[in-house]
Structures are given as C-alpha cells and as structure tokens.
C-alpha cells in the first residue's frame, strides 16, 4: 500500500516556476515531480537523505518490452513427415 504523501504550499517567484516547469517538461516530469527530484538529489548530496524515506514513485508510461516476433513468424516451421 502506498504511503501517504505530505502536501505543502510552496510560493515561488514566477520566473523560477517557469524555469522549473520548462525543465520538468524537458525531462517528461510534472513540475511537482521535478521539484521532489531536485530536493531528493540535494538531500543525498548533502548526506541528509533519511534512511526511512521511501523511493520516489515511478510514474508515467512503463518501459517498452523487447519486441516479440509475430505469432506466424516465430522461427522455421516444423518439418512434416513425408508421405512416401
């Protein structure tokens, strides 16, 4: 079961918000996810990330699986016994 996430009100300079939103879009993240990503990176760099902190949730489209050959092209057809 997912842990409850804290909600906060964050006041930002509009130019800072715009820059964060552009950066988030470049990395295919929401602005909120980008802010959390940057905060986690800063905490880890300062060696202040709490041990009990859950991993950042992975959202979005799942990674593509390796392509599967079509059902009719899975390799050579088995040999048929000859009618001799």
From TrEMBL:
Spell out the protein name for this chain.
Answer: Arc-like DNA binding domain-containing protein
Q: Where is this region: Disordered?
A: 47-84
The organism's place on the tree of life at top rank: Bacteria
Q: Which InterPro entries match?
A: Arc_rbn_hlx_hlx, Ribbon_hlx_hlx
Basic and acidic residues bias located where?
48-58
In its UniProt entry, the species of origin is given as Kitasatospora phosalacinea
């Amino acid at each position: 079961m997912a842990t409850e996430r804290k909600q906060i009100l964050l006041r930002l300079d509009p130019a800072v918000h715009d820059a964060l939103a552009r950066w988030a879009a470049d990395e295919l993240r929401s602005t909120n996810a980008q802010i959390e990503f940057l905060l986690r990176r800063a905490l880890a760099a300062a060696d202040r990330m709490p041990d009990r902190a859950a991993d950042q949730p992975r959202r979005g489209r799942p990674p593509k699986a390796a392509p599967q050959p079509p059902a009719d092209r899975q390799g050579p057809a088995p040999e048929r016994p000859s009618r001799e």
